Amino acid sequence: MMPRSLFARITLILCIGLAAAQGLSTWLTVMERDRATLDIMTGYVEREVVTSVALLDHLPAAERERWLPQLARRSYRFILGPGIPGLAPDAELSQRFAGAITDGIGKHYPLTVNAVPGDAERFQVHLKLADGAPLTIDMRPMRGAPLAGWLPALLAVQLVVLGLCCWIAVRLATRPLHQLAQAADGLGPDMKTTRLAETGPSEVVRAARAFNAMQERIALYVAERIRILAAISHDLQTPITRMRMRVDMMDESPEQGKLRQDLHELETLVKEGVAYAKTLHGTQEEACRIDPDALIDSLVCDYLDAGQQVTLTGKVGTAIVSKPKALKRILGNLVDNALKFGGAAEIEVGRAPDGRVMLAVLDRGPGIPEDQLAAVFEPFVRLEASRNRETGGTGLGLSIVRQLATTLGAEIVLRNREGGGLEARLLLPV
Question: What domains can you pick out in the chain, each with its CATH number?
Answer without folding.
Answer: 6-139 (3.30.450), 186-282 (1.10.287.130), 286-428 (3.30.565.10)
